[in-house]
Hints:
By secondary structure, this protein is of the alpha+beta class. It is 37% helix and 20% strand.
Amino acid sequence: MAIVCLAASCSKDAPEEFTQETNYVIDLNLAMETDWVVADEILLLVNDHRATLGLDAIKRDQQYASAYAVDHTMYMIDVNNINHDNFSERSQALKDRGAKMVAENVAYGYSSAESVVNAWLNSPGHRRVIEGQYTHSGFGVLKNSEGRYYYTQLFYRK
């Protein structure tokens, strides 16, 4: 039996000429829905990679960024498709809370933190995000009804 593993391209903000406040209301309890064992492994692997390049470690955001990431992962599971739909809303909501720049990586079907991080590092766009000048990260790591993982990792700089 073959498992199909896919990863979507990452998304990064373009500079904006004005800031528009959004009303992205989020339940912070959503952040607790993520699989924190896998999310913490992802963060450790990302930070290990960043350390080899002399980059600062990224801190875990277990509040807004993770709630937004879980919300997006739930959406991807609902539509049965990995995507960056409504990324501009997540980005703006984090900017409304002080973020200077925002990016996200998403993936589906990888069975471990190591496999998803390796896939992202082997993709130039995802790798640029991982190696970017970000300070914090939130996670939406959830399984669908068939037990396959969907991933959203939001990165931002304060």
